[in-house]
Design goal:
The protein has a domain of 29 residues. It contains three helices and no strands. It starts with 18 loop residues before the first helix and ends with a helix. This is DUF4219 domain-containing protein. InterPro entries: DUF4219. It comes from Gossypium stocksii.
């Protein structure tokens, strides 16, 4: 059985409206990709593995 992979959704861009909802969505997005600690604690993200794919670079 083959598994299909979907590209991750692009992060939402704040357009000036609905800030409180946007904040919740961004926190959820960052948690999903294990990046919330980078933002919250102001630490460096882990480096990319050797030979990163285009998706990882973006």
């Amino acid at each position: 059985m083959s598994s299909s992979s979907f590209p991750p959704a692009a992060p939402l861009v704040f357009n000036g409206e609905g800030y409180h909802i946007w904040v919740v969505k961004m926190k959820t997005y960052l948690h999903a990709f294990d990046l919330w600690e980078v933002v919250n604690a102001d630490v460096e993200p882990p480096p990319l593995r050797a030979n990163p794919t285009v998706a990882q670079i973006r």
